[in-house]
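Q: Hi! First time doing this. I have a protein sequence and I read that you can turn it into a structure. Is that right? Here it is:
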Amino acid sequence: MGAFHAYDIRGVYGVDFDRTTAYKVGYFIPELLKTDKVLVGRDCRVSSLEIHDALLEGICDAGADVYDLGLSSTPMVYFATANYGFKASVQITASHNPAEYNGMKVSRENALPVGLDTGLGQIKEWIDNGRETPVAACRGRVLAKDIHDDYMAFMLKYRGDYSNLKIAFDLSNGMSCLFAHEVFGEDASYIFDEIDGRFPNHEPNPLIPKNVEPLRKLVAEKGADVGVIYDGDADRVMFVDDRNRFVAPNLVIAMMALYFCDGRGEKNPRVLQEIRSSKAVGEFLQPYGADLHTWRVGRAYAAPKLREIDGLWGGELAGHYYFKDFFYSDSGLLASMIVLQIVSDLKKKGRTFSQQIDEITKYKNSGEINFKLEDKKGAMDAVKDHFMAAEKAEAFMDFDGYRVEFGQWWFNIRPSNTEPYLRFICEASTDELLAEKVAEATELLVERFDAKKS
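A: Yes, that's right. Below is the predicted 3D structure, encoded as structure tokens:
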């Protein structure tokens, strides 16, 4: 059962999981979440329909009814789960992974995520133990559910006037193709805007630089004010500025204050960032009186945390943005509408997207560096102890690996939940200091733990 991970079920279909797994997941969800109605959506991947059919068969055999959305983005499933009061939902997707991957994102009431430690682990145990799946005396039904009009009515409340902007979109042949033209109109420039689960133009992962190259070329060709790229299931979105630069998603967390605080007049908002976020985020938000909370990486942790603190918005380095207005869940579409409104307002004032990002950016950042090694905990402790012995720390966090902050720099070192990697990220006030600290950590990990940098 190599497909069960901290946040969802995901892997190469036919290798890490198969039709039988999908059937059993469907069968056990009604019992796990104590419901007789399960909402189901699916992305466009070639294997999604087969998984869909097996999942639905399992749900119905357990005696529960299926409300079938058909093709949908992941945020559409979150919306429908919370808006219509479902206690269980499944989106069939592998998000940003290559075409041969697939998986399932399970949510419970209020679109809260079900992760390995909040339910998926129980399903895995039932499957591993060979628990039987007898067909219920009264099988459930499959009912088609069309939410298009309700979803669009909800989302379009946030659409601004972008008529002064030149906008370039890369829809990644994914689920954003369902709504982008309808929301943003035909004056924008689009590429890869036909649904195709083979993802023939590039993998649907905007965090990989080569996948953003076509959008950067389009931004340059059109002289666009902003470029927008969604991932495969449209729960994530990332941006390219008018100078053709990829914008680090955590800086967008900070910039959203221009919408919520300057634009809508919110005072002293509670905002959520993850443990890898730049110190620049907090520094930019400080004049707005923001109560900034830092928490673990991943939707399984971020969405419940934003609800717990009653936060207004939050985000992650991976391009997820969470909103109180969207049931404390993440939405690539809502995030893109907010950013486009900010860029439009900036342009009216004679400022560009790139100028605003430059104003926020204060530090040099290494990006996340992966080290493949066996003793992840030992290596994390060694790096922490090494740096804390040499310099007095100003802040220390230990809830997702370690984040240690010093006067002119900080680092986070954390284990991957799904791969044999230790992930290291560092930020410093100068390029020279950054290079020094990255080299120091790398040398320690290679020499003492035989780490392979990747």
